[in-house]
UniProtKB/TrEMBL annotation:
It comes from the Eukaryota. GO terms for molecular function: transmembrane transporter activity. It is found in: Membrane. This is Amino acid permease. Keywords: Membrane, Nucleus, Transmembrane, Transmembrane helix, Transport. InterPro entries: AA/rel_permease1, Fun_TF. GO terms for cellular component: membrane. It comes from Purpureocillium lavendulum.
């Protein structure tokens, strides 16, 4: 459907507050679908459920059509029909709930049809669905309101049986009620809660003994189906609640739950009405004489025998009907507003306005009421014609439900299978099939006359009216929409900036493979790409414009662009650093894109997510956030597909250019969201989508270029988390958990960065002041495992600080200045290293017990415990390699003695490196924790240096000096031993005996072999580019160690890494 575009997705979050105008994920849900947030999200799942029950209004919905049950066979049809119809309607409810979870917008079925249908038919199908949806909303609401007027009139006849209700009196009463119901929306929340109590009271009050009778329809064996009309009518409007999607927090979960629960809850409640009613019915033929066709007051009077008693029970049903009227009118007004917002009805500019005071579409509510009032005038001329207009509501709603469900089935449920709320492929297909068949049968059922023979007064003209409505809508399509299609507006530099949010069709908002193979040769020149990320406020005029790409309006083509009307609330917003017109354009058409994009997203969940998380299950927050937000947040969606393409690019080089282009598109989404947030002085909610996208891109940019460290993304994420921490966020525990999750993710990212870059994090002690970190300090392990930091965030922090200290110290040692300041700083670093050593030695993971399972069979909790202990040992190893005096203190050596370095290596660091290697051997190679292990293998390799004895070293030197005088190698005429002796001469080891080989040398060789094997495995199972750099670094370290004439004490592995620029994000 056409959409009011906003400049970007704003902040998003995993869970939302219950009240407030816009809630992170919900705002992203809406904006990524192409609409802007206009209504207040003040409805909970229970509010929506109660509104659904209020719309059903079981005592009224069932009772107002009781005459049909009387024609259809009486009590048997009533009771069995209630059971059967509830089962069938639940299939419809589940089918609609899945679609609502996939596309959570008030546009409802017509928007779903547009998204699912093929490019050739999506416009016309969405238009047909939209008009049937709108007509159904209007006429079913009219049916309820007219039913209330008729019920009220029948109630009066309890005391005045002879009073005659002329048509004009009923119409006058109806119009008066219309005017009153306009104000009911102010109190709808309380009314929805109250209706449940009213329904309960009316159902229990109906119990009284009575008897049953025979079938009166004349349809023979088909009479039973005529008798199930009451329950079918009762739940006919269950899908109207989807129009409230933009007034509910956490809509992708709460709305489908409310829809799916409405029928089961209504079924149970209805039994307390249907069973007593079946047991107390008077003779069926007598019920047909009920005034105005309203059987309930008449039944109450006949059964109870007293007008006052009948009035008491009827009053309860009248109250329920009022609740139903208000609820269904509110829902219909939201549908009208959504349709007007998409410029699909005349006068859309007026009807789509939202009252700023009440944040409700008052004009749409007015139009809904006016239409009902005009249709009610038909009753003055012909009651049969009016009844046809009233009954067409069920048919129209059924058609609007059936079209998107059938379209979804035609695509193999490709969309709803990945929705946040879904019934799965197999069971969902069965449910959809039952729903479509039941809808088709309903169309026949509600088009039939209730009894035969058929007379002009009993004829059901419903289908005639339905066709008439559709003819009018077709004429409007020909007059208005058909011509709009040829004038679809695309964004250009003179208009508003292109929104990088994913519009009505996600596949149309991305750059397909075949379009991306034709990109320029630009590459990432330095770690500041794009400069827009480093300074997002300058992004708008820094990113290059690609003239071959244009930004489309991904919405039904009969909707003109609202940007040309200047309707955006962001029109006057200023962005520091320049104008907004130079954003890269997205392609207007997609050539084979949707299939490729779907494959990319599937690959992310199947391959990337397990290779990007230390454990992967339903408990993995990375998977949970991605699954919940991939269909609602443009930044998340673009980040996921960028990661997926980047992950595959190492194995398929042809994907590198498309992956780079996708990275740029994802960066644009992030830039725009960041720009929006910078305009806010206080962040009152956690922008989960933006944060998650920053972590996605920042940690995966090295998959395209191994030397990229994601510094600009890290800076943006860190600034954002700092803002959230420094301002009071009015959030519950769930929001604090989200914030804690991202802070732990930041800890891990900074740990990776500190290993290869002189990046300075805030001092660890500062973070320990927070309550959360105090909890971490108080316990050995975290309460819940994290997909990156595992079970101990504290260990990750200590490793970070240890590496930073080592890097700082090596800088001073390798580039001595001789100043007192440098010497004093070096001494301070040595003292801090000693403190860090003490803190690391305090950590003991050998006796920890699991706190929470990971849910991943390949990665039990103990694997993460091994990793935590490995990081503890790796931290100590780096401190001992960098500060030999720490080992001297442990070995009780005199600081400053010349022998201490060799002893440190032989007696302390090598055993520690071997211990670390053996610990890593305990973790199977298929463990999901492998993604957080690459640093550990590098650290272990830095301690695997074998020191020859001094005499052996001198002998080697002499032998090396004499190599030039050695005779050339000869082959012919040589014996086996002579052949080997010649090899020894060439290697310069003739003077070195077998006694030089020690057990430690064998252990070092075995350990080195294990590390290389594991790195090979990681290169096959993770993204290979960073692992390839890690392998080169390990081999360079060993080569430097093995080539040293003084063993492993004359250099440091950090110097080797810096000299050869072997850096990446190793994790």
């Amino acid at each position: 459907m056409a959409s009011q575009k906003t400049e970007s997705s704003t902040a998003s979050e995993v869970k939302q507050y219950e009240y407030g105008r816009g809630h992170g994920t919900d705002v992203d849900n809406l904006q990524s679908l192409g609409y802007k947030e206009e209504l207040r999200r003040n409805r909970s799942m229970f509010t929506l459920l109660f509104q659904s029950l209020a719309v059903a209004a079981i005592p009224y919905g069932f009772g107002s059509t009781l005459i049909s049950a009387v024609y259809g066979g009486g009590q048997l049809a009533m009771f069995l029909g209630w059971v059967v119809v509830c089962i069938l309607d639940e299939c419809i409810a589940i089918s609609l709930a899945e679609l609502a979870a996939k596309y959570p917008t008030s546009a409802g079925p017509y928007y779903w049809s547009y998204q699912i249908a093929g490019p050739r038919y999506k416009t016309v199908l969405s238009f047909i669905t939209g008009w049937t949806w709108l007509i159904g909303n209007w006429t079913i609401t009219l049916s309820v309101n007219f039913g209330f007027a008729s019920l009220l009139a029948a109630t009066v006849n309890l005391y005045q049986p002879t009073y005659e209700w002329q048509p004009w009196k009923l119409v006058l009463a109806l119009c008066g009620y219309f005017l009153r119901s306009i104000h009911g929306h102010h109190y709808r929340g309380s009314l929805h809660l109250a209706v449940c109590g009213g329904e309960g009271g009316s159902t229990f009050g109906s119990i009284h003994p009575g008897h049953e009778d025979i079938t009166l329809s004349g349809w023979g064996g088909f009479s039973f189906f005529i008798g199930i009309l009451p329950p079918a009518y009762t739940f006919s409007a269950l899908g109207m609640i989807t129009s409230m999607a933009e007034e509910c927090g956490d809509v992708t979960v709460k709305l489908p739950r409310a829809i799916s629960l409405a029928v089961p809850v209504g079924f149970v409640a209805g039994l307390f009405f249907v069973i007593p009613l079946c047991a107390t019915l008077p003779p069926l033929a007598d019920i047909l004489e009920a005034p105005l066709g309203q059987a309930i007051p008449y039944v109450f009077l006949r059964v109870l025998g007293s007008p006052s008693s009948a009035l008491a029970l009827t009053t309860l049903i009248l109250v329920i009907t009022v609740f139903c009227s208000i609820s269904i009118t509110v829902a219909a007004s939201r549908t009208t507003w959504a349709f007007a917002r998409d410029n699909a009805i005349p006068g859309s500019r007026l009807w789509s306005k939202v009252n700023e005071t009440h944040t409700t579409p008052i004009w749409a509510l007015t139009l809904t009421t006016l239409v009902q009032m005009l249709l009610s005038l038909i009753y003055l001329g012909s009651s049969s014609a009016f009844n046809a207009f009233v009954s067409v509501g069920v048919v129209a709603l059924a058609v609007s439900y059936g079209i998107p469900i059938a379209l979804s089935m035609s695509t193999g449920r490709a969309g709803v299978n990945t929705a946040p709320w879904t019934f799965g492929k197999t069971l969902g297909w069965i449910v959809n099939s039952v729903a479509v068949c039941w809808i088709a049968f309903e169309l026949v059922l509600f088009s039939m006359p209730p009894a035969i023979p058929v007379t002009p007064s009993t004829m059901n003209y419903c289908i005639v009216v339905f066709v008439g409505f559709m003819t009018i809508s077709a004429a409007w399509y020909g007059i208005h929409a058909r011509h709009v299609e040829s004038s679809i507006k695309f964004f250009d530099a003179a208009e508003e900036p292109a929104a990088t949010s994913v519009e009505a069709n996600f596949s149309a908002a991305v750059v397909p493979f075949d379009a991306l193979f034709d990109v320029g040769d630009e590459t990432l020149t330095d770690d500041t790409f794009p400069s827009a990320i480093l300074e997002p406020w300058r992004a708008i005029d820094i990113l290059p414009v690609q003239d071959s790409m244009q930004g489309p309006i991904h919405s039904p083509e009969w909707r003109p662009s609202p940007w040309s009307q200047g309707s955006s609330d962001l029109d006057g917003m200023s962005f520091p650093g320049g104008a907004c017109g130079a954003m890269p354009r997205l392609p207007g058409r997609v050539h084979g894109g949707p299939e490729a994009i779907e494959a990319l997203m599937t690959n992310w969940f199947d391959q990337v997510c397990p290779a990007w998380s230390a454990f992967d299950s339903a408990l993995n927050p990375n998977r949970k956030i991605a699954l919940e937000m991939m269909h609602s947040s443009a930044a998340v969606f673009n980040a996921l597909r960028s990661m997926s393409a980047s992950f595959l690019s190492a194995r398929l080089p042809q994907l590198e250019r498309p992956a780079l282009e996708m990275l740029k598109t994802a960066a644009q989404s992030i830039v725009q969201e960041a720009a929006i947030l910078r305009t806010k002085t206080v962040l009152d909610r956690i922008p989960t989508g933006l944060l998650f996208s920053l972590f996605c891109l920042g940690t995966s940019v090295c998959w395209l270029d191994a030397g990229r460290l994601g510094l600009p993304f890290l800076k943006e994420a860190k600034d954002l988390l700092s803002r959230l921490s420094s301002h009071a966020v009015a959030a519950g525990d769930d929001q604090l958990e989200v914030l804690a999750f991202f802070k732990k993710s930041l800890v891990y990212w900074e740990m990776l960065l500190s290993f290869v870059d002189d990046y300075e994090t805030e001092r660890v002690e500062h973070d320990y002041q927070t309550a959360h970190c105090r909890e971490i300090q108080a316990t050995k392990t975290d309460q819940y495992p994290h997909p990156w930091t595992g079970i101990s965030t504290l260990t990750s922090r200590l490793f970070t600080r240890s590496i930073q200290l080592c890097r700082s110290y090596r800088r001073r040692v390798s580039r001595p200045s001789g100043s007192e300041v440098s010497i004093e700083a070096a001494m301070q670093e040595i003292q801090e290293a000693q403190k860090l050593e003490e803190r690391l030695l305090e950590q003991d993971f050998s006796s920890v017990t699991p706190t929470n399972n990971t849910g991943d069979e390949k990665t039990p909790w103990m694997h993460l415990a091994y990793v935590a202990e490995a990081y503890q040992l790796a931290s100590l190893l780096q401190l001992y390699l960098t500060f030999p005096d720490l080992v001297a203190l442990r070995l009780q050596l005199t600081p400053g003695t010349g022998a201490r370095s060799e002893l440190s290596c032989d007696q302390w660091t090598i055993p520690l490196a071997l211990r670390l290697t053996k610990l890593l051997e305990q973790i199977p190679p298929e463990s999901g924790s492998r993604v957080i292990q690459p640093l550990l293998y590098i650290c272990a390799s830095t301690g695997l240096c074998y020191n020859l004895s001094s005499s052996s070293r001198r002998s080697s030197i002499r032998s090396d000096a004499g190599l030039c005088d050695a005779p050339p190698v000869t082959i012919l005429g040589q014996g086996i031993l002579g052949y080997i002796d010649q090899m020894q001469v060439r290697e310069g080891s003739v003077t070195s005996g077998a006694d030089d080989l020690s057990e430690v040398a064998v252990e070092i060789g075995v350990a080195r072999s294990f590390i290389l094997r594991r790195l090979d495995t990681l290169e096959c199972t993770l993204q290979p580019r960073p692992i390839a750099v890690a392998k080169r670094l390990v081999k360079a370290i060993w080569a430097a160690y093995d080539d040293e004439t003084r063993g492993c004490t004359s250099g440091h592995w950090l110097d080797i890494m810096e000299a050869q620029n072997l850096r990446s994000l190793f994790g």
